[in-house]
Amino acid sequence: MGKLISFCAGASIEVMPSQNVRALLLNVLDHGANDRKIRISREMQRMAKPKYVMLDSSGYQLHVAENKGKRITFDSRLPLKHSKQEINLTPKHVMDAASFIRPDIVVGLDFPIRKVKTNAEKEAEFAKKLDYNVRWAFESVAEWKERCPEAQFFLPIQCYNLSQLDLFLGKTGGLDFDGVSMPIRELKIQDVALFLVSFYQRGIRQVHLLGTFSFPVIALCAYMARHMFEWVSLDATTWRFAVDKGEFLDPYNLSRVKLQPEITIPDDAENKCPCPFCSGQNFATIQGLERKIKTRLLREHNWWSLCKVFSDLEGNFTDIVALKKFMLPNCRTSRMMKTATGLIETLGLVDIFKDSDIGILKNLLDSEPIKKKMTPPRLQTVPA
């Protein structure tokens, strides 16, 4: 049985859960761009006392900068730069930061692929970023071995489908790495399952998934950790940024209860959460709290709820039947029930076909990435 790990992302000195931060996610631009940020990251580690620290290369920050049309350069001869107008970042900068922060895991630099609509756009976007990502994979490994070999190295994956995964891993064949890291924000649960099975079939036994804390994905990862991998970890800022919307995460299924001041709460709405932060307080009471007190309570509660769901799913996943008995009673809406049923069906197929030709599983799942419209950004890139 492998480990299922929840990384706390989006934390800061001012905003940190008071308990149970087993794993802490930092990133190079926010926590390692200069001496002051490095000192703050060390203080965060001292406060949280995590068992695991991961340093992400700041691919997400590059993604945001690209969408905003910032100037982005990749010149190792110049200092790392992170301003409102410009970013300069290279594998050397990433591993320099890692040598000071000393994480347990460091993720190589990658150039994230954007959300685009058509298959033709996806092929073009993948091809546009492929040369960067292949070159940076080799540079990241070389810099990692020289500057921080005591950390584990996770190879970042940026692709829309299995064919592109084959191409990227074919071009980076022979590289040493301990695990892989991949964003899954735009993938359906069937797509995530396919990628994980593909990693498993390639002999990869450690995986980190970026950018989501959803009940079905955590359940999928609980299965994978128990039956197929040595390590499966996830991170997201959900615990923190749901608070900005005045949202309370249900500790049994992570559905959201809206507690904004303008929301009318039904008289029969009952808060059954047993956490030490809101136990004994109904939703109307929490909704009416002074803003700072309410914000602090929701942040603590939301992180506690995420940890509870991880623990519950990990403990109830001896097999798919046990998961079904646990998940379905916690589905409060028809949509949640449909999602949970689809996940259970997906896992049944994975269990049967995980060691077979992955094309068989793909055909059975009939998987296609979610399609969403996105305006192309203005990007200025200057390769080193």
Fold and architecture overview:
The model is unreliable at 367-384 (pLDDT under 50). This protein has helices spanning 28-31, 35-48, 59-67, 91-101, 119-147, 162-171, 189-201, 215-227, 238-244, 283-287, 291-315, 320-327, 334-353, 358-365; strands spanning 3-8, 23-27, 52-56, 71-74, 81-82, 86-88, 105-107, 152-156, 179-183, 206-210, 231-236, 247-249, 256-258, 380-383. 46% of the residues lie in helices and 15% in strands. The chain is of the alpha/beta class and 384 residues long. The strands form three sheets. It has an eight-stranded parallel barrel with strand order 1-2-3-7-8-9-10-11, surrounded by five helices. It has a four-stranded mixed β-sheet with strand order 5-6-4-14, with helices on one face. It has a two-stranded antiparallel ribbon with strand order 12-13. Helix 7 (189-201) packs parallel to helix 13, helix 7 (189-201) packs antiparallel against helix 14 and helix 8 runs parallel beside helix 13 (334-353).
Question: Which helices and strands occur, and which strands form pairs?
Answer:
Layout: E1 3-8, E2 23-27, H1 28-31, H2 35-48, E3 52-56, H3 59-67, E4 71-74, E5 81-82, E6 86-88, H4 91-101, E7 105-107, H5 119-147, E8 152-156, H6 162-171, E9 179-183, H7 189-201, E10 206-210, H8 215-227, E11 231-236, H9 238-244, E12 247-249, E13 256-258, H10 283-287, H11 291-315, H12 320-327, H13 334-353, H14 358-365, E14 380-383
Parallel strand pairs: 1-2, 1-11, 2-3, 3-7, 4-6, 4-14, 7-8, 8-9, 9-10, 10-11
Antiparallel strand pairs: 5-6, 12-13
Key features?
single chain; 384 residues; alpha/beta; eight-stranded parallel beta barrel; four-stranded mixed beta sheet; 14 helices; 14 strands; disordered C terminus
